[in-house]
Design goal:
There is one protein chain. By secondary structure, the protein is an alpha+beta fold. Helix content is 36%, strand content 21%. It contains twelve helices and 17 strands. It has an eight-stranded mixed sheet. A hairpin with an 8-residue loop joins β10 and β11.
Length: 424
């Protein structure tokens, strides 16, 4: 097997994470070198004895788990360095500053007078009827909304690599050309017959309501040293990201975004618009010999125009299996860790995104996805995050009913390919 055709590694982002990152990356690389040495010993034992050594297998599993843990710590340090503080170092116009101050008063004391002056009407819209849903609420300041958006991209794997649109309405509609106008070569004096018109389809992405309801004590709200905006953003971003991440992969499209794994699939040789193409692994797991060839087939199932920005998506268990694969010709491992903080691991030179919402390897499982997700999957956000203060439902706690609207779905069915673990 020759993989020289895939020799590029994506550029790594710069990071402001500080001096701790270097030590963590060194530890990660040392662990990977140890992992390779132990796995080589395991393979040599299999060849010599015809069977595995439980002690070697156990050691390999421990190193594998340590690699995952070290990758998480490196990524966490990088993300902390990249996250700006709310309202620090940013020029805020007087109207925005007034809104932020009024919002802070509303969160702490429930006084909505100043917010009423800034917002004459604050009603959410039902995604089906287009009318008011009646839950009410107040828009968070723009910098808080931006911070929530940044954190969602940090911790939601698919959002970080997908395309994104921000809309003001409840539904985003997009025309897509599934086939272009007919063209052809003609001689200088030949007749020019009329060409066929392009085929267009309309894609519709409704935005659905996602909510969280963090609770605060009166002591926290009365503490002037606590940035309440920062507290609210940190409370809701994790739960929002977890719900979004699940929906973008396996959502059924009913009151939530439609995940790319819930679309109909078809063998890539018979691909048609409206379905995602898949290649098969030949069984319920990777083949015993030349297992990496299956991944090569998946890479080449994607058209060249999409491969330049393509990414592998799989869960950590699947990544752990693939981490052992080697090039049969050179003996080099196909998986390698990121060389800088925030840089993803790579497989065959392409970034690997770990998403635990992806299924495990098993019969008929679509356990690996590969494609240009920025062109293939679209996340639609309705502008505005709303907060409704509720001091009555759970006394003595104050609840903050926080809502945002988000939708999602496949926008280019040719940009994502799947690996199906089946014989056909």
């Amino acid at each position: 097997m020759d993989i020289d055709f895939i020799d590029r590694v994506p550029a790594s982002p710069e990071t402001k994470a500080g001096p701790d990152v270097g030590g963590k990356i060194d530890a990660l690389m040392r662990s990977f070198e140890e992992y390779k040495a132990v796995n080589d010993a395991r393979l040599e034992g299999l060849m010599q004895r015809g069977g595995g050594d439980p002690l070697v297998d156990e050691r390999l599993a421990r190193i594998d788990a340590a690699l995952d843990g070290q990758r998480r710590r490196v990524d966490e340090i990088a993300l902390k360095g990249l996250r700006p503080s709310l309202g620090r170092g940013e020029e805020i116009d007087p109207a925005a500053r007034e809104h932020k101050a009024a919002f802070d008063v509303y969160l702490r004391r429930g006084d909505a007078g100043a917010l009423h002056a800034a917002e004459t009407k604050a009603l959410s819209v039902d995604p089906v009827s287009g009318g008011p849903s009646g839950d009410g609420g107040y828009l968070v300041p723009p910098e808080v909304e931006r911070e929530i958006g940044r954190r969602l991209a940090d911790v939601s794997p698919i959002r970080a690599i997908a395309g994104n649109r921000v809309v003001s309405g409840s539904v985003y509609k997009k025309p897509f050309m599934t086939s272009g106008p007919a063209v052809g070569w003609v001689g200088e004096a030949d007749a020019r017959p009329q060409t066929d018109t392009p085929a267009l389809t309309e894609l519709s992405f409704p935005t659905m309501e996602l909510y969280a309801m963090p609770a605060a004590t009166s002591t926290l709200l009365d503490d002037a040293m606590i940035d309440v905006d920062q507290w609210l953003a940190s409370e809701v971003d994790q739960v929002f990201a977890e719900q979004e991440g699940t929906a973008f992969v396996t959502g059924d499209g009913v009151a939530c975004p439609k995940g790319f794994l819930t679309y109909a699939t078809v063998a890539n040789s018979a691909w048609e618009w409206g379905k995602l193409g898949h290649v098969t692994a030949g069984g319920a797991t990777f083949p015993a010999e030349h297992a990496a060839d299956v991944l090569i087939d998946l890479v080449y199932a994607l058209r060249a125009g999409y491969r330049h920005n393509a990414t592998f998506v799989m869960n950590r268990k699947t990544e752990s299996v693939i981490r052992k694969f080697k090039d049969a010709t050179t003996g080099q491992y196909l998986w390698s860790p990121g060389l800088q903080a925030g840089a993803p691991a790579t497989l065959l030179g392409f970034p690997v995104v770990s998403d635990d919402n992806m299924p495990d390897i098993g019969a008929n499982a679509l356990a690996v996805a590969f494609g240009d997700f920025r062109r293939g999957y679209l996340v639609v956000d309705r502008a505005g995050v709303r907060v409704l203060r509720d001091p009555y439902t759970a006394k003595p706690y104050v609840l903050f009913y926080t809502t945002k609207r988000v939708g999602g779905g496949v926008q280019d069915f040719d940009a994502i390919k799947l690996l199906k673990f089946s014989a056909s």
